TrEMBL record:
Residues 1-20 form the signal peptide. Pfam families: DUF1571 (PF07608). It comes from the Bacteria. This is LysM domain-containing protein. InterPro entries: DUF1571. It comes from uncultured Aureispira sp. Keywords: Signal.
Amino acid sequence: MKLQLTAILLCFCFLTSVSAQDPIDIIDKMYAAIKKMNKSSFELHSKERFGDKYVYKKMKFHIQESPRKVYMKDLDKGVELLYVSGWNNNKGYINPNGFPWVNVSLSIYDAQVVSENHHTVDDAGFGFVNVLLDGLETTRRSAGKSRSVLYVYKGEVTYEGRACYKIYLYPPTEFRYVSYTTDRDQTLMQLSRRIFASDYLIKKKNNLNYTRTIKKGTTLSVPSNYAKKVIAYIDKKTYMPIVQMLYDEQGLFEKFEYKKVVAYPKFQSNEFTTDCSTYGF
């Protein structure tokens, strides 16, 4: 009887410790940590759905948030991209590591640049997670819902030796496709930010591209929310969302794993220039 009582008490203590974690507090700390981090470097391992198949990529990033500067290298193909806001006519400077064997400048929204990618270099880094959260919170307020409907604490998980909080994020309204008529001329990226939806899902559903202007009065089929569900692993020490899994009505459509994350790295004085010795331009 004494052993049974002890087991019950231990179980109660465990359940209490799990339920004591406030997902809203964890999310708010994550948001603040991302907002504060102006520089970062990491490897991004992505899994993105295209039709009935997944495309896997491994990329290295060096990022400065403000002013916006991004260096990216595809670790499998060796392709490099350098983007600095206000430089090179706001185009990406690209080392293709192959044909045509010369560095080229292309819009970061060009079809060749975003091929087999759900996102443009605009979205690179942890800052995009805060964009996603802003969308959830705005939609929640419009729906008159409590913040508690958005975030659910699912315990802890260890990811590559790092203790993480596991949080589920849900939209405040049902995920579905709805008819939307544009009220102004805008790009796909501008539209997706205004309605807090995935630019890739809008692009796929309506056969659009990033460079074409969507004219005022165009009727599109758009998702009502960015995703049906998001699962995030948030590092307990840094509050960085080092794993993100996003689902739509068909299942997983994006997964991002951040590895070798360095916050506030000491970049070289000529970092984010073509003269940087660690680049291949």
